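Please, structure for the following, as tokens.
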Amino acid sequence: MNCWKLDFDWDDGNRRHIALHDVAPWEAEEVLFGYALDMELQTAGEDGEERLLQLGQTAAGRILQIVTTWRDGKVRVISAWDAPQQLKLYDLAEMRRQYGNDEDSEV
């Protein structure tokens, strides 16, 4: 369990966007509070905002990809969706490598 706190920047826009991918805000937060792999760092927009693509599991074992950025000291989820099968297998292999077997995943 993490002992640090993250504040999230949620509004109707990003809630609605991730809902299009059948992801709830609490699922995205679970991934970010848990074990998440940093996959890619991008610079977006004219202001050069950094966006991070991460891969991780919810408490129920759902494996998601999440794009986030930092705004005003808060984590803003830009998008989130189910990871493709190949990345799900990669995530499970990484979890096994670091922590042992993960029998409860929904791959």
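DSSP finds three helices and four strands in the chain. The chain has a mean pLDDT of 87.
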